[in-house]
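Hey, can you fold this one?
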Amino acid sequence: MDWEFRMRWLALICTLLAPSVVSAQANDALPREFGCVSQDELGNDMHPSELARIMRACAAEQRYDDAVQVY
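Sure. Predicted structure:
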């Protein structure tokens, strides 16, 4: 492979991956903050990044059963 081909290939890959990287950063910056919540307080409108933060909060509070339920 020559240098020019490699650069074009790299540019194509970066172009294809850029939207997913940008959206992942935006999704992790959601405005809602939660501490540890129980399973009956969870909603189907919660984003996976919110659930991950809830799970970490439960683990930090040593509420492991709630952390497992959120997972």
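The chain has three helices and no strands. Let me know if you want another pass with a different chain boundary.
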